[in-house]
Every structure is written in structure tokens, then in C-alpha cells.
Amino acid sequence: MFGFYVISGYLMTRILDEVYTGRHSVIAYLTNRALRIYPPYLACLIVASLVATWGQHAMNQDLHNGLTLAQVISAPDSLQSWLANISLAFSPPSGTFSLSPAWSLQVELFYYIAMLLLSRNLLVVAIWFACSVCYVLWLDADGASFTQRYASIGGASIAFSSGSLVYWLAKLRPSHPRWLALALAGFIGHLLLAPELWQFERHYPTVSWFFEAHHFGLYGNIFFASLLMYALAAHMVTNKTSPAQAWLGRLAYPVFLCHWIAAVIVLQAGVLFEDRFSFVSLGVIVTLGLGTCLYQFVERPIETHYRNRIRQKAHQRLPAIPNTTPEAGNHA
What's the number of domains the chain is made of? Predict the structure, then answer.
């Protein structure tokens, strides 16, 4: 997740510096962010509530060391819970959102607003990054839990500020093309060797990477994700996006929202979790299918009819300052 925060920090800084530059840019930016986050999420929340009610057999299966799908997907059980899950403005009474990815969306929404102030120039970003590093050191000295480091708004600051800093550094000094191969090798190598590097068990990596990783693994991931983003920044400027890359980009958010729903559907259909090949294969197919439907019927119409227009208007530069003549003053 911290790797995605780095990407988000970079992209939000970029669009604030390059796209949202017009007279009503702040309103346009916040409106566009809300239209990006909420409609697909709310559609998934409704589907997740229905699937959680239908898939009781799958929900209660022990996946690993007591982890069940009931812990990551559920139906809201009260008005306050529904309001919390719909708005993402506060946590539900239970302390967990009905759709697990929602906690990270709450973090994202906070930084979407905060970055209006924190990402506008290199000096402010550098101060923000330095404060984030100090906060990480304080967490370490205070013996903070994994949840405090990983799932809190403050804990995510180091990742978002790193992404923002990468944008400004890449703008000042673009990377050399050979950086891309080196950064990609470093990122993948760290991901594969993380258990040995940070001393946590490899018995079931796809779970241990997310639930048992020591905090230094998180920050190592930020470093390599930032390095990869720095290398990709120059590549994105000089190369056109291929159809395959565009397709993956469109499905990234829908897939992120749908993957737990897909897991419930596959298990409820009778596929055993222990049969990893069948579970993963069918899970990928169902996830891509759900993600494609979410994009085609929810995200794409909003993108076409609303978000593109908002973007175009936001990019209109402020008009030149008029001459300070009495006549001009009368028209002001």
C-alpha cells in the first residue's frame, strides 16, 4: 500500500502543478477527486454488502492463522455504520469499514486535501518530507504498533511526501533511461527478498508481506517505490502510453476495490482456498470481470461526461492582469 501512496503523492503533485492551474482550480480539483473516488467505491460497497450476506460459507473460512473474509468484507449493520462507510469521513462503530480497502481511501482523501497546501513547491515539500522522517523516527522510539505505522494518516505521510518530492526532483533533474531497469530490479528484488532482509517468516509470503512485515520493510518499500517512480517520471514524459498500459491504468482502481468481493464469490462457488492454482486463477478472472464492469458502467461514463470537462476548465490559465487605469478599474 505504501508503494501506491508514493505513486499517489507523485501524481497529485503533478496534476496540481500542471493541470489545476486556472481560476477555480481548487474547487475543480476537489470535485474531480470526489468523482474519482466515491462513485466506484459506493457501487462496490453495495455489491460487497449483498455478497457478504449471500456468501456466509465463504466468509467464515479460515484462510490463514484465523484470518477470515468476514474481517475484511461485511454489510453495515446500523445507520451510523452506513454513514461512516458512505462518507469515509469517520470510522464505523466497529472500528473497521465494511469494505477493507476503504481505510486506505480515507487516508487518500485526507492527503488529497492536505496536498493543496503541502505540495505546491519544492521547499514546502522538503519540509513536509523532513517532518515525516522525524515522525517515523518518533514512532520507532515510541515502539508504535504495525497498525500505527501502516494504517494511520500520520504513518502514511512519509509515503505521500516521498512521492511529492520525487515529482519536484524529477522536474529539476530528469533521470537517465538506464535508471528504469535498475530501479525496477531493485523494487522487485526487495519485494522477493523482504523476508530475509527484514527477518520475518516466509511460510506464506502473500500474507506475511502485508500482515507480519516488520516496519523497516515498509520503509524499504517506500525507498524502492520512490526510486522506481523517479525513473518512470522521465519515461512517462518522453513515451506515449500503450493500449495495454492504458487498460491496466483504467482497471487499477476497480480491481483494488473488487478483489475481496471476488474472493468471496470464488470460495462460495466451491473452490477450495488450499487449491491455490484454481483459487488464484479464478480469482483473477472474476476480479478482472468485476473491475471491467465497474469501469464500463460507473467510472467511464463519469470520466467522459464530467471529469474530462472539469479538467479542461481547470487548465484554463488566469487572464493577464489588466492595466491599472481608471477605466479598467471601473470594469473590475
Answer: 1
Q: Is residue 161 part of a domain?
A: yes
Dist CA 220 CA 198 (whole Å): 9
Summarize pLDDT for 242-254 with one digit per residue, the tens: 677 777 788 899 9
Distance CA 94, CA 125 (A): 35
Global confidence as pTM: 0.83
Identify whether the C-beta of residue 64 lies closer than 8 Å to the C-beta of residue 204.
yes
Which amino acid does the sequence have at 296?
Answer: Q
Q: Report the C-alpha gap between 235 and 228 in whole angstroms.
A: 11
The one-letter code for the residue type at 230 is: Y
**Residue 71 DSSP class:** G
DSSP H helices, the chain, are 2-18, 25-54, 56-59, 79-87, 102-118, 122-142, 146-150, 157-172, 178-198, 205-211, 215-238, 243-268, 276-294, 300-302, 308-314, 326-331
pLDDT in tens, 200-209: 554 444 434 4
Whose cell is 518512470? That residue is: 232
Is residue 266 in some structural domain?
Answer: no
Question: Which positions ≥6 away from 1 have C-beta within 8 Å?
Answer: 104, 150
Rounded distance between C-alpha atoms, residue 106 and residue 112, angstroms: 10
Q: How many CB atoms lie within 10 A of CB 134?
A: 11
CA atoms within 13 Å, Cβ hemisphere of 190? 20
The grid cell for 167 is: 515529482
Instruction: With respect to residue 81, please indicate whether it lies within any of the assigned structural domains.
Output: yes
Under 8 Å between Cβ of 224 and 186: yes
> Quick one: which of 51, 76, 37 has its CA closest to 261?
51
Q: Which domain holds residue 145?
A: 2-173
72 lies in some domain: yes
Give the Cβ contact number of residue 209 at 10 Å.
16
